[in-house]
Target: L-methionine gamma-lyase
Amino acid sequence: MSIDRNKKLSFATRSVHAGYDSSANEGSLNPPIYMTSTYAFDNVEQGAGRFSGEEKGHFYSRISNPTQEILESRLADLEEGEAALATASGMGAITATLWTLVGPGDQILVDKTLYGCTFSFMEHGLKKFGVDICYVDFTDHGELQSQLSDKTKVIYFETPVNPNMRVIDIAAVSTLVKDYSPDIKIMVDNTYCTPALQRPLTLGADLVVHSATKYLGGHGDLIAGAVVGDAETIQQIRLFGLKDMTGAVISPMTVFLILRGIKTLQLRMERHCQNAQAIAEMLHQHPAVDQVFFPGLKTDPWHAMASTQMDDFGGMIALELKGGYDASVRMLNKLKLAKLAVSLGDAETLIQHPASMTHSVYTLEERAAHGISEGLVRISAGLEAIEDIIADLEQALES
Ligand SMILES: *Cc1c(COP(=O)(O)O)cnc(C)c1O
Model:
């Protein structure tokens, strides 16, 4: 029997089992990979019924696929949403969702700091089509309140924010916005935390988006994304944002790898969090380091807030060296074990420089205005033994 949606089971158990019934699949412990673009109908009536939506079932893999459906049930279960849609990339999920929710004349209120390509899509994509993008500091609830208007259709933010690690209060923002108008959709990018650490839908958000490329896949071997929310909105995104606007369809092979990755999600997140905590504490005391941004440090301004909405503090750290930009470059070029690479959430410790890499689509002035400093270094704590990661960082910091 399928144990889909059994909320009584713990998160780790649901990560392994939710959405898949081996007894309905020849006993196969792992799900079959349905490599098919189309589905044969028994007769014309059945085909017509599937197209009109009157009959359940697949008709073309740009819309749905049985392997993909397993991942979607599992993600919906873990995020505690009704339904999910898996996509070819995180940007595929973000763009398919926003193309579905907004049109010319509508406004999106976004936090002042966003993942680089999300910023680029808003600033250079949606704006061109007449959507008003308004940047607000979401940690300032008075400012957020003052910007809400009849035009506001979507509220969009990440928390902790990539790359500067500010923490936004999901429950407080949701209450404030829903008090103004229950029709405004609240969208949270939960890539940094995954549902293992934070479940925005239980705190009042309407939609959660993911880059599954990161912790959900967890092994740096794929690009994928997902959106989770209520069944009606997810269906609209599937039939418009995905089917007609982006075509950002995920491959069944990629789905298989993400399902495999999610089985160890909780185990991996525990180690990512432990390693990040130890790295942050070492950096905090290091004479070459000016500032460490990590909500797990008791001295961090977001520590109390993060403790209430996150189960642990995550695997991502940002830091600023006393020697600024030049010192950052010297340190990054001296790393031996940690890889100088963008992306995050992999087994390998990854370090990058947002101003020249992930956030280089912002101009210098935009970075200053949006809170991304030039010397900032971002670390994704990997799964290596902590003493080896620390030894590598220490030798690089000596320069
Ligand atoms: C990587 C990332 C994205 C984009 O996801 P892709 O899978 O690379 O398209 C969006 N948001 C955040 C926070 C990310 O880290």
In short: The longest helix spans residues 265-285. The chain has two domains: 11-263, 265-397. The domain at 265-397 is CATH 3.90.1150.10 (Aspartate Aminotransferase, domain 1).
